[in-house]
C-alpha cells in the first residue's frame, strides 16, 4: 500500500512538530580565541556505548563552520531561568556573548554559567539531511550540576514553557 504523493506544506509541518516538547540547549565552541555558539532545540542522545549525542543545525548556519573547524563542542542544557540566554544565542548579527558568564570546559569549550548540565564533545560524524546537517559528537566529559530544584527550559507550540505551568510535578 502506498500513500498518494502530496506535498507537505512547511508551515503545517512546523505546526505539527510544535506539538513535540523539547529542551533547549546552546551549542558552543572556541575557535581562534573567540567563543561561538547558537541556540538548538534539536538535540538528543544517540548511543550509550560509546557515549554519543547529536544535534541538527541549518546548513546555512553562521556559527557552525567555526564549530566544525574546532572539531569539538559543548552542549549547554539550559534551565527555565535562562530564557534570555536562549533568545540571545538565537539571534544573528549581534554579540551573542555580551554579558554571558562562562568558563572553559576540559576540551576548551565555553560552559555557560548556571546551565542545568553540560556535555563536552568531539565531532564524531556529520551527515547532510535536507536543509540541515546532523552532527554527532562523542562525549568526552560531563558535569551534573547540583541544582535539584531547577527546571529545564522547554519549548512547546512555538513558545517557552515549564513543567509546573502545565500541571506536571
From TrEMBL:
Q: Which domain of life is it from?
A: Bacteria
Know the name of this protein? Flavin reductase family protein
Keywords, in A-Z order: Oxidoreductase
Q: Which GO terms describe its molecular function?
A: FMN binding; riboflavin reductase (NADPH) activity
Output the InterPro entries linked to this UniProt entry.
Flavin_Rdtase-like_dom (IPR002563), NADH-dep_flavin_reductase (IPR050268), Split_barrel_FMN-bd (IPR012349)
Q: What's the source species for this entry?
A: Halopseudomonas bauzanensis
Instruction: Give the similarity note.
Output: Belongs to the non-flavoprotein flavin reductase family.
| SMART domains noted in UniProt | Flavin_Reduct
Which Pfam families does UniProt cross-reference here? Answer: Flavin_Reduct
Answer whether the UniProt record assigns the keyword Ubl conjugation to this protein: no
Ranges for domain Flavin reductase like come to: 17-162
Amino acid at each position: 500500500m502506498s500513500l498518494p504523493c502530496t506535498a507537505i506544506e512547511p508551515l503545517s509541518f512546523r505546526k505539527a512538530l510544535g506539538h513535540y516538547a523539547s529542551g533547549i540547549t546552546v551549542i558552543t565552541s572556541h575557535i581562534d580565541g573567540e567563543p561561538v555558539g547558537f541556540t538548538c532545540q534539536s538535540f538528543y542522545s544517540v548511543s550509550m556505548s560509546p557515549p554519543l549525542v547529536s544535534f541538527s543545525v541549518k546548513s546555512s548556519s553562521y556559527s557552525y563552520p567555526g564549530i566544525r573547524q574546532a572539531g569539538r563542542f559543548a552542549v549547554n542544557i539550559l534551565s527555565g531561568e535562562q530564557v534570555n540566554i536562549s533568545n540571545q544565542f538565537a539571534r544573528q548579527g549581534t554579540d551573542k556573548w555580551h554579558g554571558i558568564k562562562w568558563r572553559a570546559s576540559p576540551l576548551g569549550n565555553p560552559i555557560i554559567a548556571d546551565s542545568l548540565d553540560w556535555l563536552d564533545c568531539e565531532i564524531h560524524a556529520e551527515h547532510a539531511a535536507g536543509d540541515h546537517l546532523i552532527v554527532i559528537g562523542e562525549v568526552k566529559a560531563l558535569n551534573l550540576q547540583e541544582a535539584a530544584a531547577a527546571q529545564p527550559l522547554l519549548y512547546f507550540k512555538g513558545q517557552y514553557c515549564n513543567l509546573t505551568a502545565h500541571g506536571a510535578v
